[in-house]
Every structure is written in structure tokens, then in C-alpha cells.
Write a structure and sequence with these properties.
The chain has one domain (18-381). It is α+β, with helices and mostly antiparallel strands. The protein contains 13 helices and nine strands. The radius of gyration is 22 Å and the shape is globular. β7 and β8 (363-370) form a beta hairpin.
């Protein structure tokens, strides 16, 4: 058996003490092997079936024709997708628990209720809970997954309402909108509110590259764990958008399901707050960083990226264990199923980081706290954004 790859390297551009604190509290570094019999082995939701996955957009052949080529379906692409799909199974199993567990159905039910006047006639006699089940089942027959999100390198994933919506996005990215027939665009604009949703979910291409590294056994256990977790949450986040696309006319905005702030009007973040108690973020996720580099962090307040706290690897690992889900209520009471207890240790997170730009925007100032006590303050020079 080959040697386990080394855990993640220490991060550049961080305060001298931060890496030490992350290791001290188990938020980075190596993790011990886990008995395979203890890991999730549940069936995966039909929405994730192999037939719903394509490698990506066929940019060499895509056309403006609504029925023209769009996805890569050649033998080589399908063979690569076979490998990637198998590597995705741990993420599928966790995502299935998160979207289908009987104790986590309230989000889907309240989503249906938010659009109750738009429920189709064939479902009008059903309860909101039954409609939610119908919609979740409908996602399995209507959703397409792929790798690729256009020209946004820092976006984790994206959802389009249909193949047509994706096609228009691709043509714009390729600078080919001028070739789009005016009649087609006019027709599409007039009818899109009546078109049923056939969602397309795209994951950042970085995920595919890292899954292939995992297939080649070039990722350490902590790296694979964070990658699997990151993908599972991204899939659920985007499925929340896809579910709302089924609920609403495509021209309507997403409606608030939980909470009363602006972030909860975004279905994906609303689901994260409902299911996990916070919005997950990959620390140092940028154009120059890989998904498995750096600890997982949570925004202390939704969408306020100036203030985060870090998540122990052990907490993430517990989500992949059968025992956590077999004892759901106990796990929830023990704080194994949401982030809230991680931010309430003596009223403060174990490890949190605040950061803000200095006057002039050339520096970023950070304060690192352990149990609410300042342990480090430092500054970083803000690197200019790439323009090409």
C-alpha cells in the first residue's frame, strides 16, 4: 500500500500564529484513518444518478440553435465522467442525507408554501409536504450536472433554469451573442415565464481536477475530506436553487423561506442556514488556491466575509459517519449537525478571524481570537486583481 500523501501545506499570507492555532484545534493537519464500515453507505438520491451527469459544455461545437449541440458526449469525455462520478459518491451520500432526511424536510415544505399560488393544478390537492416530495423526485428526472461555470474562477457552482439559459450564458461568455438570431431571443423572452424548469447545475472545473487527483491517490485524507464536504454542500446549495426554479415562474425572484435578512432571499444560502446554521466558506478560496487548501470556515453573520470562525476537521468527519445520522436527535443536541454550537463556546468561537481593509485599500488588517481573546494582529498587502 502506498504512503499516505502529506496533509495540506501551511498557507501563505497568514499571520505567524494562525497556522499554529489551526493545528492546535484540529482545523488543519492530518486525520487518522476511519474504519470503512463506519462511513456512510446509504443509497444515493436518484437526482445524482450517473445519467444526469455530463463532463461539460462542448465549446468547440456549441451553437445558437436551441436544439444544437451543447454538452460533451464523446467517448473520452464519458469515460472521464465515469471516473469522476465514482469519486463523487462520498459527497452524494452526504448530500442525500442532507436533502432527504426526514428531520430536514422543513426547508422544502416551506419553499413550496412560499410559492403556493403557483402550484400546478396536478398537485393542487396535495399537502405542501407531498408537493415537496413530488418536486424533489421531479429534480431527478429534470436536472443535469456538469463541470464548468463560465469565466468566473472564484465561483464554486452555478445553476441555470434550463439548457437554453445555459446556452445563452455560454454564447455570451464566448462573445458570440451577435450571432444569436433576434427572432429566437424575442421568442425566448416572451415564453420563458411559461417554460418548465429543467435545471443545469455546474460545478467549478477545479472540483474535477481535484477529484482526478484523489483518484490518483495524490490527496491526503484531510484534503479528501474537505473536498468531499465542500462538494456535498455545493450540490445541496445549488439544488435549493433548482428546487425554487421548479416552484416559481422563471421570471420571478426567489422568495424568502427562513429569516428576515437579504441573504435568506437567496435559496442556496437560506438552505445552508437552515440545515447547518451558517454559510460555509473555504478559507483562502481564490483563483490561486485549491479547494482543499486551507481550513473550512463559517461566516459568523450571513454574507459578512469580514468575520469568520473555523471548523474542526473532526466535526466535518462526523457528518460522514453512519452513527451521526442513525442517532439524529442526539447528534443534533451534541452539535454534530450544525455550526451553531461551534460559535457558542463560552459565547465565543474556539477560533475566529476578523479582517477589514485599511484606508486606501492597500492593506488588510486581521485580528485572530481564541475563545474571544486576541492572540494575534497582523496586516497583509492586498494583491491587485488580475485583469486578464
Amino acid at each position: 500500500m502506498g504512503k499516505e500523501p502529506s496533509p495540506e501545506p501551511l498557507l501563505p499570507l497568514t499571520g505567524p500564529i494562525l497556522n499554529e492555532m489551526l493545528l492546535k484545534h484540529g482545523m488543519s493537519g492530518s486525520i487518522p484513518p476511519v474504519d470503512q464500515s463506519k462511513l456512510l453507505d446509504n443509497d444515493i438520491d436518484p437526482v445524482f444518478q450517473r445519467s444526469n451527469w455530463v463532463l461539460g459544455v462542448d465549446e468547440n461545437n456549441v451553437t445558437c440553435d436551441i436544439d444544437g449541440p451543447l454538452f460533451k458526449v464523446d467517448a473520452a469525455s464519458e469515460a472521464e465522467m465515469d471516473i469522476l462520478w465514482k469519486m463523487l459518491i462520498p459527497s452524494f451520500r452526504l448530500a442525500t442525507k442532507l436533502i432527504r432526511h426526514e428531520n430536514l424536510q422543513e426547508f422544502w415544505v416551506k419553499s413550496v408554501e412560499a410559492y403556493k399560488e403557483q402550484i400546478p393544478k396536478q398537485y393542487a390537492a396535495l399537502s405542501p409536504k407531498d408537493v415537496a416530495c413530488e418536486y424533489l423526485d421531479l429534480l431527478a428526472s429534470r436536472t443535469t450536472f456538469m463541470f464548468g461555470i463560465g469565466n468566473e474562477p472564484n465561483i464554486v457552482a452555478s445553476t441555470w433554469n434550463s439548457n437554453t439559459g445555459l446556452r445563452i450564458s455560454v454564447m455570451r461568455t464566448m462573445g458570440a451573442m451577435g450571432a444569436m438570431k433576434a427572432e429566437f431571443m424575442k421568442s425566448y423572452g416572451e415564453t420563458q415565464r411559461e417554460l418548465p424548469a429543467y435545471p443545469v447545475i455546474g460545478l467549478n472545473l477545479k472540483h474535477a481536477r481535484l477529484l482526478l487527483l484523489a483518484h490518483q491517490k495524490k490527496l491526503a485524507r484531510d484534503q479528501r475530506l474537505k473536498l468531499n464536504f465542500h462538494i456535498a454542500i455545493a450540490l445541496c446549495h445549488e439544488l435549493a436553487h433548482a428546487f425554487h426554479n421548479l416552484c416559481r415562474l422563471s421570471g420571478d425572484k426567489e422568495r424568502r423561506v427562513f429569516g428576515n435578512d437579504s441573504v435568506t432571499e437567496e435559496a442556496g444560502y437560506s438552505w445552508e442556514i437552515f440545515a447547518l446554521g451558517g454559510v460555509i466558506s473555504q478559507y483562502r478560496y481564490s483563483e490561486s488556491a485549491s479547494l482543499y487548501i486551507g481550513p473550512m470556515s463559517v461566516l459568523k453573520q450571513p454574507m459578512d466575509r469580514r468575520h469568520i470562525f473555523f471548523v474542526p476537521l473532526e466535526w466535518i468527519l462526523r457528518l460522514f459517519l453512519n452513527s451521526t445520522w442513525d442517532n439524529f436527535e442526539e447528534s443534533k443536541q451534541n452539535g454534530f449537525l450544525n455550526f451553531r454550537p461551534l460559535s457558542s463556546d463560552k459565547e465565543h468561537p474556539v477560533l475566529e478571524l476578523e479582517g477589514w481593509n485599511s484606508a486606501g485599500g492597500t492593506k488588510k488588517h486581521y485580528i485572530l481570537k481564541e475563545h474571544g481573546e486576541v492572540v494575534e494582529e497582523y496586516e497583509e498587502t492586498i494583491r491587485p486583481r488580475r485583469t486578464s
